[in-house]
Protein backbone atom coordinates (compact mmCIF):
# COMPACT_ATOMS: atom_id res chain seq x y z
CA UNK A 1 0.00 0.00 0.00
CA UNK A 2 1.23 3.55 -0.79
CA UNK A 3 2.66 5.60 2.04
CA UNK A 4 0.11 7.65 3.97
CA UNK A 5 0.49 11.36 3.30
CA UNK A 6 -0.15 13.50 6.36
CA UNK A 7 -0.25 16.83 4.50
CA UNK A 8 -3.56 18.56 5.27
CA UNK A 9 -4.67 15.61 7.40
CA UNK A 10 -6.81 16.49 10.42
CA UNK A 11 -5.07 15.25 13.57
CA UNK A 12 -6.32 15.33 17.18
CA UNK A 13 -3.51 14.84 19.75
CA UNK A 14 -4.22 14.40 23.47
CA UNK A 15 -1.57 15.35 26.02
CA UNK A 16 -0.11 17.84 23.53
CA UNK A 17 1.04 20.37 26.16
CA UNK A 18 4.37 18.65 26.90
CA UNK A 19 6.69 15.71 26.29
CA UNK A 20 5.88 13.18 23.59
CA UNK A 21 2.56 14.88 22.71
CA UNK A 22 4.28 18.23 22.14
CA UNK A 23 6.91 16.57 19.91
CA UNK A 24 4.20 14.68 18.03
CA UNK A 25 2.46 17.99 17.31
CA UNK A 26 5.70 19.40 15.89
CA UNK A 27 6.38 16.25 13.83
CA UNK A 28 2.85 16.32 12.35
CA UNK A 29 3.16 20.09 11.69
CA UNK A 30 6.41 19.51 9.76
CA UNK A 31 4.39 17.28 7.44
CA UNK A 32 1.73 19.93 6.90
CA UNK A 33 -0.98 18.35 9.04
CA UNK A 34 -3.77 20.38 10.65
CA UNK A 35 -3.81 20.01 14.43
CA UNK A 36 -6.32 20.00 17.25
CA UNK A 37 -4.33 20.05 20.51
CA UNK A 38 -5.80 18.78 23.79
CA UNK A 39 -4.58 18.87 27.43
CA UNK A 40 -5.48 20.79 30.60
CA UNK A 41 -2.80 23.55 30.56
CA UNK A 42 -4.04 26.15 28.06
CA UNK A 43 -0.90 28.33 28.32
CA UNK A 44 1.35 25.36 27.42
CA UNK A 45 -0.94 24.36 24.56
CA UNK A 46 -0.69 27.92 23.23
CA UNK A 47 3.11 27.72 23.26
CA UNK A 48 3.04 24.40 21.37
CA UNK A 49 0.52 25.74 18.83
CA UNK A 50 2.75 28.80 18.20
CA UNK A 51 5.79 26.56 17.76
CA UNK A 52 3.88 24.45 15.22
CA UNK A 53 2.79 27.53 13.25
CA UNK A 54 6.31 29.04 13.31
CA UNK A 55 7.95 25.79 12.30
CA UNK A 56 5.68 25.11 9.36
CA UNK A 57 4.51 28.50 8.12
CA UNK A 58 0.76 28.71 7.91
CA UNK A 59 0.26 25.38 9.69
CA UNK A 60 -3.11 25.16 11.37
CA UNK A 61 -3.02 24.44 15.12
CA UNK A 62 -6.12 24.96 17.24
CA UNK A 63 -6.60 24.22 20.92
CA UNK A 64 -9.33 22.80 23.05
CA UNK A 65 -8.13 22.74 26.68
CA UNK A 66 -9.75 20.49 29.28
CA UNK A 67 -9.59 17.40 31.42
CA UNK A 68 -9.88 14.16 29.44
CA UNK A 69 -11.33 12.30 32.40
CA UNK A 70 -14.43 14.51 32.04
CA UNK A 71 -16.91 12.90 29.58
CA UNK A 72 -18.31 16.35 28.71
CA UNK A 73 -14.87 17.52 27.61
CA UNK A 74 -14.36 14.42 25.45
CA UNK A 75 -17.67 15.17 23.68
CA UNK A 76 -16.60 18.83 23.26
CA UNK A 77 -13.31 17.77 21.66
CA UNK A 78 -14.99 15.58 19.07
CA UNK A 79 -17.65 18.26 18.43
CA UNK A 80 -14.82 20.74 17.80
CA UNK A 81 -13.27 18.43 15.18
CA UNK A 82 -16.66 17.82 13.56
CA UNK A 83 -17.63 21.51 13.44
CA UNK A 84 -14.22 22.89 12.47
CA UNK A 85 -13.08 20.18 10.04
CA UNK A 86 -16.23 18.17 9.31
CA UNK A 87 -14.13 15.08 10.04
CA UNK A 88 -10.98 13.58 11.50
CA UNK A 89 -8.15 11.61 9.90
CA UNK A 90 -5.95 10.71 12.88
CA UNK A 91 -6.67 10.40 16.61
CA UNK A 92 -3.60 10.19 18.85
CA UNK A 93 -4.33 8.96 22.40
CA UNK A 94 -1.18 10.14 24.15
CA UNK A 95 -2.18 11.75 27.48
CA UNK A 96 -1.05 9.64 30.41
CA UNK A 97 0.02 9.61 34.05
CA UNK A 98 1.70 7.19 36.41
CA UNK A 99 2.22 6.47 40.11
CA UNK A 100 5.25 4.98 41.86
CA UNK A 101 4.98 2.80 44.94
CA UNK A 102 4.03 -0.59 46.31
CA UNK A 103 0.52 -1.76 45.47
CA UNK A 104 -0.09 -2.96 49.05
CA UNK A 105 0.33 0.51 50.55
CA UNK A 106 -1.19 2.41 47.62
CA UNK A 107 -4.93 3.07 47.45
CA UNK A 108 -7.99 2.74 45.27
CA UNK A 109 -8.01 6.44 44.35
CA UNK A 110 -4.54 6.15 42.80
CA UNK A 111 -5.49 3.03 40.82
CA UNK A 112 -8.68 4.64 39.54
CA UNK A 113 -6.94 7.95 38.64
CA UNK A 114 -4.34 6.18 36.52
CA UNK A 115 -6.89 3.86 34.85
CA UNK A 116 -9.31 6.74 34.28
CA UNK A 117 -6.90 8.73 32.11
CA UNK A 118 -4.63 6.06 30.59
CA UNK A 119 -7.37 3.61 29.69
CA UNK A 120 -10.99 4.80 30.07
CA UNK A 121 -10.45 8.30 28.66
CA UNK A 122 -8.57 6.95 25.63
CA UNK A 123 -11.16 4.23 25.00
CA UNK A 124 -14.18 6.52 25.37
CA UNK A 125 -12.66 9.33 23.28
CA UNK A 126 -11.99 6.76 20.58
CA UNK A 127 -15.59 5.49 20.70
CA UNK A 128 -16.76 9.05 20.05
CA UNK A 129 -14.21 9.57 17.26
CA UNK A 130 -14.92 6.39 15.29
CA UNK A 131 -17.92 7.78 13.31
CA UNK A 132 -15.79 10.73 12.16
CA UNK A 133 -12.80 8.51 11.36
CA UNK A 134 -14.99 6.17 9.29
CA UNK A 135 -15.78 9.04 6.92
CA UNK A 136 -12.07 9.92 6.35
CA UNK A 137 -9.95 8.84 3.38
CA UNK A 138 -7.15 6.98 5.17
CA UNK A 139 -7.94 7.15 8.89
CA UNK A 140 -5.85 5.98 11.82
CA UNK A 141 -5.79 5.72 15.61
CA UNK A 142 -2.45 5.95 17.42
CA UNK A 143 -2.30 4.72 21.01
CA UNK A 144 0.74 5.59 23.09
CA UNK A 145 1.26 2.56 25.32
CA UNK A 146 4.46 1.59 27.10
CA UNK A 147 6.98 -1.19 27.48
CA UNK A 148 5.24 -1.60 30.86
CA UNK A 149 2.16 -2.62 28.86
CA UNK A 150 4.14 -5.72 27.78
CA UNK A 151 5.96 -6.58 31.00
CA UNK A 152 4.79 -5.37 34.40
CA UNK A 153 7.45 -3.75 36.55
CA UNK A 154 7.47 -3.47 40.35
CA UNK A 155 6.42 -0.18 42.01
CA UNK A 156 4.42 0.61 38.85
CA UNK A 157 1.43 -1.71 39.23
CA UNK A 158 -1.33 0.84 38.49
CA UNK A 159 0.48 2.06 35.40
CA UNK A 160 1.20 -1.50 34.21
CA UNK A 161 -2.48 -2.39 34.60
CA UNK A 162 -3.55 0.66 32.59
CA UNK A 163 -1.08 0.06 29.76
CA UNK A 164 -1.83 -3.69 29.55
CA UNK A 165 -5.51 -2.74 29.29
CA UNK A 166 -4.70 -0.22 26.58
CA UNK A 167 -2.73 -2.83 24.63
CA UNK A 168 -5.42 -5.53 24.79
CA UNK A 169 -8.12 -3.07 23.79
CA UNK A 170 -5.90 -1.75 20.95
CA UNK A 171 -5.50 -5.26 19.51
CA UNK A 172 -9.26 -5.92 19.63
CA UNK A 173 -9.97 -2.56 18.04
CA UNK A 174 -7.44 -3.12 15.23
CA UNK A 175 -9.23 -6.29 14.19
CA UNK A 176 -12.70 -4.73 14.48
CA UNK A 177 -11.81 -1.59 12.51
CA UNK A 178 -9.83 -3.29 9.72
CA UNK A 179 -12.96 -3.63 7.56
CA UNK A 180 -13.54 0.13 7.90
CA UNK A 181 -10.00 0.84 6.70
CA UNK A 182 -8.99 2.42 10.05
CA UNK A 183 -5.36 1.61 10.95
CA UNK A 184 -4.59 1.19 14.65
CA UNK A 185 -0.98 1.75 15.70
CA UNK A 186 0.36 0.86 19.16
CA UNK A 187 3.52 2.71 20.23
CA UNK A 188 5.35 1.24 23.23
CA UNK A 189 8.08 3.63 24.36
CA UNK A 190 10.61 2.85 27.06
CA UNK A 191 11.84 5.58 29.39
CA UNK A 192 11.64 8.92 27.58
CA UNK A 193 12.96 12.38 28.55
CA UNK A 194 9.78 14.27 29.50
CA UNK A 195 8.05 15.84 32.51
CA UNK A 196 6.25 12.52 33.06
CA UNK A 197 8.05 11.69 36.32
CA UNK A 198 7.29 15.16 37.75
CA UNK A 199 3.52 14.62 37.33
CA UNK A 200 3.00 11.34 39.20
CA UNK A 201 -0.41 11.09 40.85
CA UNK A 202 1.29 9.42 43.85
CA UNK A 203 4.85 8.64 44.86
CA UNK A 204 5.80 6.43 47.79
CA UNK A 205 8.97 4.88 46.27
CA UNK A 206 11.91 5.72 44.02
CA UNK A 207 12.29 3.51 40.95
CA UNK A 208 15.62 1.72 41.47
CA UNK A 209 16.44 1.65 37.72
CA UNK A 210 16.36 5.46 37.38
CA UNK A 211 15.94 7.38 34.14
CA UNK A 212 19.49 7.07 32.78
CA UNK A 213 18.48 5.17 29.64
CA UNK A 214 15.83 7.68 28.57
CA UNK A 215 15.63 8.67 24.91
CA UNK A 216 14.50 12.11 23.64
CA UNK A 217 10.75 12.64 23.22
CA UNK A 218 11.44 13.94 19.69
CA UNK A 219 12.88 10.54 18.73
CA UNK A 220 9.73 8.77 19.95
CA UNK A 221 7.53 11.24 18.07
CA UNK A 222 9.47 10.99 14.80
CA UNK A 223 9.40 7.16 14.90
CA UNK A 224 5.67 7.26 15.64
CA UNK A 225 4.83 9.53 12.71
CA UNK A 226 7.03 7.48 10.35
CA UNK A 227 5.29 4.29 11.49
CA UNK A 228 1.93 5.93 10.78
CA UNK A 229 3.09 6.94 7.30
CA UNK A 230 4.01 3.30 6.66
CA UNK A 231 0.76 1.93 8.18
CA UNK A 232 2.62 -0.13 10.76
CA UNK A 233 0.71 -1.79 13.61
CA UNK A 234 3.21 -1.70 16.44
CA UNK A 235 6.55 -0.08 17.28
CA UNK A 236 9.01 -0.07 20.20
CA UNK A 237 10.93 3.23 19.96
CA UNK A 238 13.51 2.32 22.62
CA UNK A 239 15.67 -0.77 21.89
CA UNK A 240 16.32 -1.39 25.61
CA UNK A 241 12.60 -1.67 26.19
CA UNK A 242 12.28 -4.04 23.24
CA UNK A 243 15.11 -6.15 24.69
CA UNK A 244 13.19 -6.47 27.98
CA UNK A 245 10.06 -7.66 26.14
CA UNK A 246 12.08 -10.27 24.19
CA UNK A 247 13.95 -11.41 27.34
CA UNK A 248 10.63 -11.75 29.17
CA UNK A 249 9.23 -13.93 26.38
CA UNK A 250 12.30 -16.19 26.31
CA UNK A 251 13.23 -16.29 30.03
CA UNK A 252 10.20 -15.23 32.10
CA UNK A 253 11.48 -16.86 35.32
CA UNK A 254 14.82 -15.08 35.07
CA UNK A 255 13.13 -11.72 34.46
CA UNK A 256 10.78 -12.34 37.42
CA UNK A 257 13.75 -13.00 39.72
CA UNK A 258 15.68 -9.94 38.49
CA UNK A 259 12.62 -7.73 39.01
CA UNK A 260 12.00 -9.12 42.52
CA UNK A 261 15.58 -8.07 43.40
CA UNK A 262 14.92 -4.61 41.95
CA UNK A 263 11.71 -4.31 43.96
CA UNK A 264 13.67 -5.09 47.14
CA UNK A 265 16.28 -2.47 46.14
CA UNK A 266 13.41 0.01 45.68
CA UNK A 267 12.59 -0.40 49.39
CA UNK A 268 16.08 0.77 50.28
CA UNK A 269 15.98 3.64 47.76
N1 LIG B 1 8.11 9.48 29.65
C1 LIG B 1 8.23 8.16 29.63
O1 LIG B 1 9.24 7.59 30.13
C2 LIG B 1 7.17 7.30 28.97
C3 LIG B 1 7.49 5.96 28.69
C4 LIG B 1 6.53 5.16 28.08
C5 LIG B 1 5.29 5.69 27.75
N2 LIG B 1 5.01 6.99 28.04
C6 LIG B 1 3.67 7.50 27.71
O2 LIG B 1 3.78 8.64 26.88
C7 LIG B 1 2.59 9.43 27.02
C8 LIG B 1 2.99 10.90 27.15
O3 LIG B 1 3.71 11.08 28.35
P1 LIG B 1 5.01 12.02 28.45
O4 LIG B 1 6.16 11.17 28.79
O5 LIG B 1 5.09 12.89 27.26
O6 LIG B 1 4.67 12.84 29.78
P2 LIG B 1 4.17 14.36 30.02
O7 LIG B 1 5.14 15.31 29.45
O8 LIG B 1 3.87 14.44 31.48
O9 LIG B 1 2.84 14.44 29.16
C9 LIG B 1 1.59 13.99 29.64
C10 LIG B 1 0.51 14.77 28.92
O10 LIG B 1 -0.76 14.31 29.36
C11 LIG B 1 -1.55 15.45 29.69
N3 LIG B 1 -2.52 15.13 30.73
C12 LIG B 1 -2.28 14.62 31.96
N4 LIG B 1 -3.42 14.48 32.65
C13 LIG B 1 -4.42 14.93 31.83
C14 LIG B 1 -5.82 15.04 31.97
N5 LIG B 1 -6.46 14.65 33.08
N6 LIG B 1 -6.54 15.57 30.94
C15 LIG B 1 -5.90 15.98 29.81
N7 LIG B 1 -4.58 15.86 29.61
C16 LIG B 1 -3.85 15.35 30.61
C17 LIG B 1 -0.55 16.49 30.18
O11 LIG B 1 -1.05 17.80 30.00
P3 LIG B 1 -1.73 18.74 31.12
O12 LIG B 1 -0.95 18.54 32.38
O13 LIG B 1 -1.58 20.10 30.50
O14 LIG B 1 -3.14 18.29 31.20
C18 LIG B 1 0.60 16.26 29.20
O15 LIG B 1 0.36 16.97 28.01
C19 LIG B 1 1.84 8.87 28.22
O16 LIG B 1 0.76 8.07 27.78
C20 LIG B 1 2.87 7.97 28.91
O17 LIG B 1 2.27 6.91 29.61
C21 LIG B 1 5.92 7.82 28.64
Summary tags:
about 270 residues; alpha/beta; Rossmann fold; seven-stranded parallel sheet; two-stranded parallel sheet; 8 helices; 9 strands; binds NADP nicotinamide-adenine-dinucleotide phosphate; EC 1.-.-.-; SDR_fam
Describe the 3D structure.
- Residues 9-188 form the Ketoreductase domain.
- By secondary structure, the chain is an alpha/beta fold.
- It contains 8 helices and 9 strands.
- It has one domain (10-268): Rossmann fold (3-Layer(aba) Sandwich).
- A 7-stranded parallel β-sheet has the order 3-2-1-4-5-6-9, with helices on both faces. Strands 7-8 form a two-stranded parallel ribbon.
- The chain is globular, with a radius of gyration of 18 Å.
- The N and C termini lie far apart (50 Å).
- The mean pLDDT is 95.
- Bound molecules: NADP nicotinamide-adenine-dinucleotide phosphate (NAP).
- NADP nicotinamide-adenine-dinucleotide phosphate (NAP) is lined by residues 15-21, 39-41, 44, 67-69, 94-97, 117, 144, 146, 189, 191-192, 194-196, 199, 217.
